[in-house]
């Protein structure tokens, strides 16, 4: 954001810019005048959005100015490509909104927090709702306040792209997936030989592991490596370079960056987490313009960030119940997306009437009353009609991971996670593949000539990486690849492969890598930690994979998964950012719990990997699990427009590439509704 400030305000802003790294008064607002969407925002032609203006008057702290009284007489103008500026409300043909006022507090840095010295800020604000810009080009929004101070934001409306090249889109998200994780999977996989081995050369860690290979040459690849195009996207959020799943998913779905925990909005400073300025999502635009079908599939609870951000608008991702209501009923005075045609995952606690559901209501009944079939298990899912909208909620919380559903199945029996809320264990569970293939059946039927958009998420790649339960994370990533393989086959059987764009990516990554092998028997036999570390073999001592040597084992899980999850020589790998924990590199027969809490801090759990060695953490002591990393994440593409996904680009560009392929960048008058326009 570019600003013209008085000397006093400029000094305050410069101090804030230096000191406010851990905390920010408002991340997109380094000056006392805030424009949301901020400087550098991009828009799809015709995409709906709100504008929020805030003028701040800090009462105390290093930025204290204007006696703590915000200027309520501020003005806002907009100008296109150097043309004469117009009053903002006049340009959009709307009434000038009323001024709102509030205050908020924040800590300028850790020293201020330690002393409990919060800075108070008084705010004057206006919100301009449901706007759209149709003409491509550059627009300058100018906020004038405090008798001569200005803040400007430059917006870019992307080019028109109204030729539809793909009828359907399937967007696979391996939550937290990185190239290094994909490479680690080669160790346990025997597939049909891929003709596109050149893609493997772009996955550098694949060369290091040498598993399922003969004399260093792979005999097979993942289905992802069969995709003809690979690119990489940068995952930064709008005001931090480490992101979370909410705003990173939102960037993929809207073409607008946001703040950690926010989705479908630019985060403002008001108390209400639902009044922040909204931006229209890919499925809202797709439904409004084409009338096609859309759906979400996830192995997480369905109100989790990645699936719910398709329709969610809030700066607080933890508003689970309200976000499920938004998914079904939409948002007032906004695009009515009609509800998902497919909604499959976990998270029964948001549907069972009670403290976890919206206003305590029975959300299962509300979906049923809206015409949805309701499935609570795999058997019911398979029997559900493809003609009707389909809700499938298969357990409380997240679905059990692939490794527990298929190998260590005894872990399922102790859970009280039946989606009815009866306290029993959910045992008849679909996996990502079963949910995705059923979703394609429903969406292709209901979408018809209008097409469909499906997001399918392997959520526990991320969740198990956080827990440092690497085998469970990699098992779910293998399940994702198996699902992709089955999906490509399914699309071919339906005769729609050539008209469907399939994209595989992640919302963010983890700092995971593999550096060798570990002799787990030798490690367990040693008496002290330093001796145990001698069991790790690097370089020439890393050897070959034993994950494909089954012996007498037979899990019955097919060729897409390791034949032996408990080899003597396991991969030695992990995260770069962790709490204190113990490590023995063995698969954990039950879900891992790496830390224990004592006096508000986390320490290595002595019951976890007791025959392993202590690994000192690199994170603050109030962090119980691993965290996300800065790494770029891969983007694989197959189908119409696949060539546009090569290279390295921002996460928001994934949205524009998909939207352009669907022909959603429309000219004025070709909108399917009548939003306010400029």
UniProtKB/TrEMBL annotation:
Protein EC: 3.1.3.1
Alphabetized UniProt keyword annotations: Magnesium, Metal-binding, Signal, Zinc
First and last residue of the signal peptide: 1-20
Pfam families (alphabetical): Alk_phosphatase
Free-text comment on the cofactor: Binds 1 Mg(2+) ion.
Annotated Gene3D superfamilies: Alkaline Phosphatase, subunit A
GO function terms (MF aspect): alkaline phosphatase activity; metal ion binding
Residues that bind Mg(2+): 175, 304, 306, 457
Cofactor: Mg(2+); Zn(2+)
Active-site residues (renumbered): 245 (phosphoserine intermediate)
Protein's UniProt keywords contain Zinc: yes
PANTHER family: ALKALINE PHOSPHATASE
Protein name: alkaline phosphatase
Species assigned in the record: Stachybotrys chartarum (strain CBS 109288 / IBT 7711)
